[in-house]
Amino acid sequence: MRTVLREYDYEPEPEPETDDDLDERTRAGSGHGYRSSGVQSDDRSDYLSLSETAQSVSHGYKFASFGTTNYLRSTLLYAARLLNHPFFSDSNMQDGRAPRVKNRAPAAVQITAEQLLREAQERQETAFRAPKQRIEDFEELHEYRGRKRKEFEERIRRTRGNLKEWQSYASWEASQGEYERSRSVYERALDIDARSVQLWLSYTEMELKGRNVQHARNLFDRAVTLLPRIDQLWYKYVYLEELLGNVAGARQVFERWMQWEPEDKAWQAYIKMEERYQELDRASAIYERWVAVRPEPRVWVKWAKFEEERLKLDKAREVFQTALEFFGDDAEQIEKAQAVFNAFAKMETRLKEYDRARVIYKFALDRLPRSKSNTLYAAYTKFEKQHGTRTTLETTVIGKRRIQYEEELSHDGRNYDVWFDYSRLEEGAMRSLREEGADEEEVETAIGRVREVYERAVAQVPPGDLKRHWRRYIFLWLDYALFEEIEMKDFDRTRQIYRTALQVVPHKQFTFAKLWLLFAMFEVRRVDLPAARKVLGAAIGICPKEKLFKGYIQLELELREFDRVRTLYEKYIEFDPTNSSSWIQFAQFEAALADYARARAIFELGIGQTPLSYPENLWKAYIDFDGHVKVWRAYAQFEAAPIPMSQALREEEEEEEDEEEEEKLVEGDVHLARQVFERGYKDMKNKGLKEERVVLLEGWKEFEQQHGTAADVDKIGTWSSPDDEREANPASFKLLEMAHKWKRMQAAGARSGEGGGSALSMFAASKSAAPTEAVGAEETTGKNGTMSETTREDSDEEMASSDGGD
Question: Which DSSP letter does residue 33 get?
Answer without folding.
Answer: T
